[in-house]
Design a protein that fits this description.
Elements: E1 5-10, E2 13-18, H1 29-44, E3 50-55, E4 59-61, H2 66-70, H3 77-96, E5 101-105, E6 108-110, H4 112-119, E7 122-126, E8 130-132, H5 146-154, H6 156-165, E9 169-170, H7 171-177, E10 182-184, H8 189-201, H9 205-218, H10 223-238, H11 241-251
Parallel strand pairs: 2-3, 3-5, 4-6, 5-7, 6-8, 7-10
Antiparallel strand pairs: 1-2, 8-9
Length: 262
């Protein structure tokens, strides 16, 4: 039986593929548990400098598997409670990972798949792919950090509109709203996402890690406390090899060479 999540590594890039194409990569408990375990491993793997998440087949991810949920009978609350706990662990690993994480949206991203894509640092969306928040059309509320990410990406009024009416969001609309980083031709999301990770590898990864942490925490931090965090991470970044190379390159009037051994 095929693993519900596949992991491939090469050249510093880890490719995580949600692998239930027959169910549009909808996830149950075993799948999100494995996804969280893989992301935890990748976060600390020194050979991995970036992660791409994509889906097998025609979809990125259709969210929680409602057929799996239905096995719990009429009381669905306990099933969602357990599923969300594991799923949220995976989302937290994406947000806390000090490495770039790119969603290659190769098809439908709905429900938990929508929230997972929003949690990634960058989103490459194919021209025929579609985003749907989907939760409210099934009488549910949004999880996976979607209520955090969505209003910060599109503003409160538009986020509430998306939650209330759940209209499909096609690629160009998603780009205009700021929900995705780039729209590419069908079949090219994965290659473009990998190229983005390769581009990042030529840059200061320690700078990215500090910036990601600071921006993630900024919405819950008072201004003065945020500046103190900035000072702390600036001092940390300044002691990393990337900063030594960057400063030397500036003084020597040349282009910096970051991560020569990666």
């Amino acid at each position: 039986m095929a693993q519900p999540v596949k992991l491939e590594k090469g050249g510093g890039t880890a490719l995580v593929t949600l692998n239930r194409p027959e169910a549009y990569n909808a996830f149950g408990l075993d799948m999100v548990r494995l996804l969280a375990e893989i992301l935890i491993e990748l976060a600390v793997d020194p050979k991995v400098t970036g992660v791409v998440i994509s889906g097998a087949g025609k979809a990125f991810c259709a969210g929680g598997d409602l057929r799996w949920i239905s096995q719990y009978g009429e009381k669905h609350g306990p099933a969602f409670h357990e599923l969300a706990a594991r799923y949220h662990q995976a989302i937290l690993e994406i947000r806390r990972m000090p490495k770039p994480v790119v969603a290659a949206i190769n098809g439908l991203a709905a429900g938990g798949g929508f929230s997972m894509a929003l949690a990634c640092d960058f989103r490459i969306m194919e021209a025929s792919a579609v985003l749907r928040q989907a939760y409210t059309s099934n009488g549910l509320s949004i999880d996976g950090g979607g209520t955090y990410s969505l209003p910060r990406l599109v503003g409160m009024a538009k986020a509430l509109e998306i939650a209330a009416f759940d209209l499909p969001i096609h690629a160009e609309k998603a780009l205009s709203l700021g929900l995705v980083t780039e729209v590419v031709d069908d079949g090219k999301a994965l290659a473009t996402a990998v190229e983005m990770i390769e581009d990042m590898r030529r840059r200061s990864l320690s700078s990215f890690a500090a910036s990601k942490q600071l921006m993630t925490d900024s919405f819950n931090t008072p201004f003065e406390a945020q500046m103190e965090r900035e000072r702390h991470l600036l001092s940390w970044a300044a002691d990393q090899p990337a900063a030594r190379e960057g400063i030397a390159a500036f003084l020597e009037k040349r282009k910096p060479v970051f991560n020569p051994d990666v």
